[in-house]
Hints:
Elements: E1 5-13, H1 17-28, E2 36-39, H2 44-48, E3 53-57, H3 58-66, E4 74-77, E5 79-84, E6 90-94, H4 95-98, E7 104-108, H5 109-122, E8 126-128, E9 133-138, E10 143-147, E11 152-160, E12 174-189, E13 196-201, E14 206-211, E15 219-226, H6 228-236, H7 239-250, E16 257-260, E17 264-272, E18 280-282, E19 288-289, H8 297-312, H9 318-345, H10 353-365, H11 367-379
Parallel strand pairs: 1-2, 1-11, 2-8, 5-13, 11-18
Antiparallel strand pairs: 3-7, 4-7, 5-6, 9-10, 10-11, 12-15, 12-16, 12-17, 13-14, 14-15, 17-19
Amino acid sequence: MADERIDADIAICGAGPVGLALAAFLVRRGVPGERIALIDGKSLGQAITDPRSIALSWGSVQLLEEVRAWPLPATPIHEIHVSRRGQLGRSLMDRAEHKLPALGYVARYGDVVDALARACDAARVQTVRPARVESFDEEDGSVQLRLDDGRTVVTKVAVQAEGGVFGQQESKARQRDYEQTALIARVTVSEPIAHRAFERFTDEGPLALLPQDGNDGHAYALVWCMRPERAVDIQLLDDAAFLRALGDAFGTRLGDFTAASPRVAFPLGLNAEARATSRTVAIGNAAQTLHPVAGQGLNLGLRDAAVLARQLARGATPDAIATFMQERSQDRSLTIGLTDTMARAFVGRGPLQPLLGLSLAALDIVKPARLLLADLMMFGRR
């Protein structure tokens, strides 16, 4: 295997949902699977057993349908309830206003990867795993990627689609440490509201509950953002104390919290830069790592993949990359700005917090504004 050369027109570094989606989009647009090299450090078995939950917007579901990676096991979201703890005002977004079957879906990361990997396998995409890229060597007409197993990939264009989490990344041009930690778990409640998701802003950060049906429909995916020092304390609690603390933070709209899976924690920050050279480009989490508020990270990355595939299918050239960067500028900028503002504006106990709470009530009354916000969450800047 050492010293083996792999030739491709397009090499994709990272076989998470965004990298896999890019490969699948390229094939759908006419690029032969044999001319695409998909490189990842994990085995497929490791990836598809990942139990994390992810939110897919309605627009992302349409993209997955296009590459035959939908349907897959997922729970539809019919309503999104947004509120500010301790303040008056809330907003409710409803699928009926948009005449859609769902505003989005909640799925397991591993199930999304599995569906996309099957689509890529059917298209005979070259998959190189487990292998990590140790170096890039860009020349006038090609890029050479040296892998840790001794092989070399020679390609016309290399796409970085492996981002990692905020705490493990090198700094990009636009960076902000939110000084928050996200606790991730799966919880059950005594009084579920079918297909309703919750985004509840607290003094320390947003708390999201996303419906993810178990056998009895009482299960939710939890993303609870808080100060790092408090996250350490919360992690040390036994399950009963953890559930009480969660109930105090969220309230009683879903009755009592009755059970929780093991918790996982990771630091939160903004780390974004529109990186590209003449023959390399970054997409998804490799280009922009966002706060999880409103669940926009993966959805933005899937839009990156769809647009880049459309351009590269016309030719794996510097012009294709330049056009992609121009086309994605507005959507990226708007989504990054929106999530950054939401992550910061509702935090703390300052005098503006009552006004922000009332702004949610105003959003509920002013239908055009509510519809516009929901449209941006589902489809991005179009």
